[in-house]
Amino acid sequence: MLVLSRQRDETIMIGDDIEITVVDIRGDKIRLGIEAPLDVAVHRKEVYEAIRLENEQAAALDLAELKPLHISPGNIDKTPAKTKKGRDRGGGGQVLRSNKAGRRTDGRNGSRSRRNRTA
Length: 119
Prior knowledge:
Layout: E1 11-14, E2 18-26, E3 29-35, H1 45-59, E4 97-98, E5 104-105
Antiparallel strand pairs: 1-2, 2-3, 4-5
């Protein structure tokens, strides 16, 4: 394992296209900013392990155990339901906003969204 020391606002490069920046240090916790291509998955380790376990369990399912779906083309509504404010309901999509600098954010602490960042 390579161990590097960095101070606030200093960056570590991984290859040519992944940057890890120390954003904040508070007591025994640090906040990291990660810039990576969209095709590179970035997860906390506990989230990665949960995804991996879920994928293993899904791959182990016996198709005979699944209930067959009975969907006819006539009963599929392709338009999403709307809430009172006209937003889609139940899609689980990410709500993006623009901050004062005009960057797209995911609404959490002003962090930039990986899905809509500019090059």
